[in-house]
């Protein structure tokens, strides 16, 4: 019986599932796309149901929604400042809850993969951040002054301006969106691979019917422990993405860097 049991470790192919619909077309729809649609629907329902019938004495669900909104608003005011932060609370709210809901899909039974585990979604959020801080800077200072503030830090000697400008150009307009994308993507990919590893090992140990069977409770316990850790990481990555967006906006609206 042990010879019939095969161990199926996680692999990069998990992130390239077979098409469910429209295979071989630009509109190919996979299981990950389905997870992304489900996450979007759940996010919209969360927002609608949480804000539809607000009461003076909130129920538990309204308290959760208000706590989430208040948390994002507090971070916006703390990082950007209340005056400027008010303008960007909606953007930061969408980023925080959007990243969070897509991340949490990885621990929901039957779905078991994050909507942010393929590069398209983290890249989309990074582009939203990119547009947000560029818009904030141009709106506050105008295009010319925004570019000057971004590329030429105050106090730089004239002979260093060409070199510093190139470094700041790459850092501000290339490295920021790339780092945001890769940080979120790689964290979610690793989380999925680790969860699959623990639960695949549990399945293998349990059905081996030999001395390895006694290892199945330990691998199962590790799987559940890592599931809790992955929930924490989902919240942490949503928080980091939102805070970095706020930091970039603050730098864009600051008078001088």
Describe it for me?
The chain has 257 residues and is mostly helical. It has seven helices and two strands; from the N terminus they run E-E-H-H-H-H-H-H-H. A two-stranded antiparallel sheet has the order 1-2. Helix 2 packs across helix 7, helix 3 runs antiparallel to helix 4 and helix 4 runs parallel beside helix 7. The longest helix has 48 residues. It is globular, with a radius of gyration of 23 Å. The model has no long low-confidence stretch (mean pLDDT 90).
Using brief descriptors, characterize the structure shown.
257 residues, mainly alpha, two-stranded antiparallel ribbon, 7 helices, globular
Unreliable stretches, pLDDT < 50, 5 or more residues? none
Q: Helical content, roughly?
A: over 70%
- Report the total helices: 7
Q: Helix/strand/pairing class, anyone?
A: mainly alpha
**Overall residue-averaged pLDDT value:** 90
Strand order of the largest sheet: 1-2
Q: What is the end-to-end distance? A: 68 Å
Number of strands: 2
Residue fraction in strands: under 5%
Shape: globular
C-alpha-based Rg, rounded? 23 Å
SSE series: EEHHHHHHH
Give the helix/strand layout.
Elements: E1 19-21, E2 29-30, H1 31-51, H2 60-80, H3 82-104, H4 120-141, H5 143-151, H6 161-208, H7 216-253
Antiparallel strand pairs: 1-2
Helix pairs in contact: 1-2, 1-3, 2-3, 2-7, 3-4, 3-7, 4-5, 4-6, 4-7, 6-7
Structure described in brief:
By secondary structure, the chain is an all-alpha fold. The protein has helices spanning 31-51, 60-80, 82-104, 120-141, 143-151, 161-208, 216-253; strands at 19-21, 29-30.
């Amino acid at each position: 019986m042990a010879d019939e049991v095969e161990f199926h470790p996680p692999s990069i192919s998990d992130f390239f599932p077979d098409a469910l619909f429209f295979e071989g077309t630009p509109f190919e729809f996979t299981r990950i796309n389905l997870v992304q649609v489900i996450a979007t629907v759940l996010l919209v329902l969360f927002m609608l149901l949480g804000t539809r019938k607000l009461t003076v004495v909130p129920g538990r669900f309204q308290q959760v929604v208000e706590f989430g909104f208040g948390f994002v608003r507090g971070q916006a005011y703390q990082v950007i400042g209340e005056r400027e932060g008010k303008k960007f609370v909606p953007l930061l709210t969408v980023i925080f809850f959007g990243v969070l809901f897509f991340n949490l899909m990885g621990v929901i039974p039957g779905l078991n993969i994050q909507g942010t585990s393929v590069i398209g979604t983290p890249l989309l959020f990074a582009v939203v951040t990119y547009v947000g801080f560029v818009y904030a800077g141009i709106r506050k200072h105008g295009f010319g002054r925004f570019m000057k503030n971004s590329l030429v830090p105050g106090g730089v000697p004239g002979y260093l301006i060409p070199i510093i400008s190139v470094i700041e150009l790459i850092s501000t307009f290339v490295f920021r969106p790339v780092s945001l994308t890769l940080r979120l993507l790689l964290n979610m990919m690793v989380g999925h691979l680790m969860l699959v590893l623990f639960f695949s090992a549990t399945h293998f140990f349990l059905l081996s019917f030999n001395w390895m069977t006694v290892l199945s409770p330990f691998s199962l316990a590790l799987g559940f422990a890592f599931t809790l850790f992955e929930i924490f990481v989902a919240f942490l990555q949503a928080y980091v993405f939102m805070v970095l967006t706020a930091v970039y906006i603050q730098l864009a609206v600051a008078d001088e860097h």
